[in-house]
């Protein structure tokens, strides 16, 4: 949720989870992802965590990828193979209801530090959150099909969208 203007919108269809995985993999391969702030929107069971799991796998995470529903955030430190590490923070704000937690739990610092931020249920922390680069709004259609509205709010978001064109 943001009041910044949308710079570009695309509507995509994922006919199955594999298509979600292809989209995630295309994103994982673009350098613009490293400092990106991506919000995932859509109802319970839409596929927000599933998308993040595919993205983290494509980035090289091999261990268990937990849904951060209770912890609010799950951090990852990924080795990029060239000596660099990538900090990833996977948020789920579904249970977030105390704005003081934003400061107390160090969320503000995370957003102020380089690294990839992925946030489910961002609307629950809307006043605190900075403008995202990209918002993916997932809508379940019949069976495994998902309609995905992709909104870019920054030049980086536009770059991310461009990188997924082949996969969409
Ligand atoms: N095209 C698709 N893309 C993503 N997930 C899909 C797709 N088709 C089926 N699924 C399934 O839908 C389910 C999505 O669950 P998931 O936990 O990712 O939802 P969520 O949006 O994170 O929900 P919550 O709001 O509870 O966190 C998974 O079981 C996944 O396998
Ligand atoms: Mg989830």
Automatic annotation (TrEMBL):
It is found in: Cytoplasm. Transmembrane segments: none annotated. Gene3D superfamilies: P-loop containing nucleotide triphosphate hydrolases (3.40.50.300). The keyword Lyase does not apply. SUPFAM superfamilies: P-loop containing nucleoside triphosphate hydrolases (SSF52540). Keywords: ATP-binding, Cytoplasm, Magnesium, Metal-binding, Nucleotide-binding, tRNA processing. It comes from the Bacteria. Its main location: cytoplasm. NCBIfam families: T6A_YjeE. Belongs to the TsaE family. This is tRNA threonylcarbamoyladenosine biosynthesis protein TsaE. It comes from Ideonella lacteola. The lineage of its organism: Bacteria, Pseudomonadati, Pseudomonadota, Betaproteobacteria, Burkholderiales.
